[in-house]
Amino acid sequence: MSTAAMTARQRGRRAALTEAVIGLLQETEPDRIQMREVSERSGVALGTLYRYFPTKEHLMAASMVAWNDRLSCKLDTERRRAEAAGESDDRSVCERVLALYRRQLRAFQRGPNFARLDLELTTSADPFVRQSMQRRAENNQAATLALMDGVPDEVSRVAILAVDGAMLAALSFWIAGRISHAQAVRNVEDVVRLVLADHA
User: Is 180 exposed, middle or buried (CB count within 10 Å of its CB: 0-12, 13-18, 19+)?
Assistant: First the structure.
């Protein structure tokens, strides 16, 4: 059932479940989380949990989207406040995009289990998971495009492809212990500066 077709009470239960997972991911790795544990923490009966999310992978995907939506909402709130205050952003397009990806990487640094989960879900063949991760990607791309005012479409499209690819590689190497978080940030920054050199 889509969230649009749910009652307010149903949406509340669903949100309680994803919030419980987000809380658990702050403490433990994704593969250690049990459905019963999510049920107990959320206060939603186990049978009800399975009606919302038939598999753990579905629950994890919905929780990843919910976690990502937190940053999206925060960015939207900041933008609205700045507009209401009449504040202008004098940073270059490159600096704006750098700031966005730095925030995303800081969020993963604070919660490395979200990076682990993100990498796991990215390779899933499950239709629900793929749809959820596509929604997340589209939201992130929209946030990036909003910072690229004045950049030609063909440039912004390639820039997003390049930077998102660098982000995925950086997270993979960092989680695998092959590079430090600082190096992961630097790798992403280098790609942003390269593809947006004309908008620095």
Answer: exposed
Closest CA to 133 of 61, 66, 53: 61
Instruction: Name the pTM for this structure.
Output: 0.90
Domains of the chain from N-terminus onward: 3-199 (1.10.357.10)
Average pLDDT for consecutive 10-residue bins of the chain (200 residues)? Answer: 80 96 97 97 97 97 95 86 86 95 96 97 96 94 91 94 97 98 98 95
Residues in CB range of 89: below 8 A, 6 or more apart: 82, 96
DSSP H or E stretch at residue 50: helix 46-52
**Cβ(79)–Cβ(99) under 8 Å?**
no
Residue ranges of E strands in the chain = none
